[in-house]
Write a structure and sequence with these properties.
alpha+beta; 19 helices; about 15% strand; elongated; binds zinc ion
């Protein structure tokens, strides 16, 4: 066995002598240089050999960290009755397995045994992954299915983490994300909590408008694997799909354009949950507070015509401007046009275009549209039953939403006419969560949704405190 391979294979011990280590690595590089290689090969060798330095350094520091922890109950804060001072644990780090010893003790108050160092150092119960490894698993599983993630991790870090371990680890992080989310949502139950959430908002000095967009999509359930297609064809599939309620929140001044003229939102908050409307409402409120709800000069709620959305908006954002998405509204007019004049006919187009213009340009455009529809309904005596039905339905739709169609004002204020931002959010989430072959359990979906949302919301550091720039 060469000294180099001995140093690499032996687990514990001190860091190798720096000069000796440099000499060995140089010699190894020389050998591949002679045979010809590209820079990537050199990078890989150095990267790999650096772990020999990193592992013993980490081991030393982890032990010091463990020794520094106070022996207090992590739950109630009381002093623990220390039963035995030294117990070994191994952690899987980016430099390999690192053993350390730590004390544990019994809390007479909680009647439970604790290892206070573990939690303080960022380790979870019965889980080997170090915080960096936890993070790597979480990020990779969010971005790609487990098999692909496993390969990518190996390529990028040299770590061999099996699919099952990786998925388990990512799930564990998802559950941490869920607990964070629940804690935030629970804050909305009290005035002090609401104040705390509002204080987190980084709002600008001047007046600003906060935009809240709401939508929903559905996600497939895992049970009845393989039968979904059959069931759906039979029309019995509805229970296999679950609504995911989603919202996005941003300030109007956070909208911009790319060099190519595409609209972008530079920073925004996200909410996505399948835990039902009541839970969604709290989560959305918590997020809106953290994005400056209480400091906004005006608030704008944008969505399609779904009844539950406007009930929620009336309930929680009563003083906000409510606007129904222009594209959805125009679709309703096109439905009438098609029913009256036929699909794709010039007459249909001729009929619908002035109405769309009124909506955008007239102060009470929606009333003019309603009048027109009512006139047709009353005066045309050769309407079929289907046409009458369509007209009645759409008159009802426009009457119900007429106060949410201030498009003229919206244009004047340079506000969005539609809920395109939430629709693109939904399709981004769906990209990951509806990918072919992705069948996750109910709980799993929610944990991964929570994890993806923490990531999108720029709060990764709340799960992984090391996620900040090193000095
Ligand atoms: Zn306790």
């Amino acid at each position: 066995m060469t000294p180099a391979s001995k140093a690499r294979s032996n687990g514990g011990g001190k860091p190798p002598d720096a000069n000796q280590w440099m000499g060995q690595v140089r010699a190894e590089l020389e050998r591949v240089l002679v045979n010809g290689c590209d820079i990537g090969v050199l990078e890989r060798i150095i990267e790999h050999r650096l772990k020999e330095l990193g592992r013993p350094l980490l081991e030393e520091a982890v032990q010091k960290l463990a020794d520094r922890q106070a022996l207090l109950c992590p739950r109630c804060g009381r002093e623990l009755h220390v039963e035995r001072h030294q117990r070994q644990r191994k952690v899987s780090s980016v430099f390999g397995k690192v053993p350390f010893r730590r004390s544990y003790g019994f809390c007479p108050n909680c009647q439970e045994r604790f290892y206070p160092a573990d939690n303080a150092m960022g380790l979870q119960e019965r889980a080997p992954a170090s915080p960096r490894v936890q993070e790597i698993c979480a990020l990779m599983v969010l971005e790609s299915p487990a098999a692909q993630a496993e390969e990518n991790i190996r390529r990028l870090t040299g770590l061999d983490i099996g699919q099952a371990s990786m998925h388990r680890e990512a799930r564990r992080q998802g559950e941490r994300a869920l607990r964070l989310r629940e804690a935030d949502a629970a804050l909305t139950n009290s005035l002090e909590g609401v104040r705390e959430l509002a204080q987190r908002a980084q709002a600008p000095k001047g007046a600003f408008t906060l935009v809240i967009e709401i939508d929903a999509w559905n996600i497939r359930e895992r049970d009845h694997w393989g039968e979904s297609e059959k069931l759906r064809k039979k029309g019995e599939d509805t229970s296999r799909w679950h609504w995911v309620y989603a919202g996005t929140i941003f300030r109007l001044d956070q909208r911009g354009k790319t060099a190519s003229g595409r609209s972008v939102i530079t920073e925004r908050g996200y909410v996505a949950t399948r835990q039902g409307l009541e839970s969604f409402e709290k989560q959305l409120y918590a997020e809106a507070l953290q994005r400056g709800l209480t400091k906004a000069k005006s608030v704008l709620v944008l969505a399609d015509g779904a009844v539950w959305i406007w009930n929620l908006a009336e309930d929680r954002y009563k003083d906000a401007t409510h606007r129904v998405d222009f594209y959805h509204v125009s679709e309703h007019l096109w439905t009438v046009a098609r029913d009256l004049y036929g699909q794709g006919t010039p007459q249909a187009r001729q009929w619908v275009q002035p109405l769309l213009r009124w909506l955008k340009r007239r102060k009470d455009g929606a009333l003019d549209v309603i009048n027109t529809l009512q006139q047709i309904r009353a005066e045309l005596d050769n309407l079929t039953a289907k046409q009458q039905e369509t007209l009645d339905r759409e008159i009802g739709y426009f009457k119900g939403h007429k106060d949410r169609m201030d498009y003229k004002n919206a244009k004047a204020l340079d506000q969005p006419l539609g809920s395109g931002a939430i629709e693109s959010t939904c399709s981004q989430y769906q990209c990951r969560f509806k990918r072919t072959g992705q069948f996750w359990s109910l709980e799993g979906d929610e944990a991964f949704l929570a994890l993806a949302t923490v990531h999108r919301n720029g709060r990764w550091h709340r799960l992984f405190p090391h996620d900040r720039k090193l000095e």
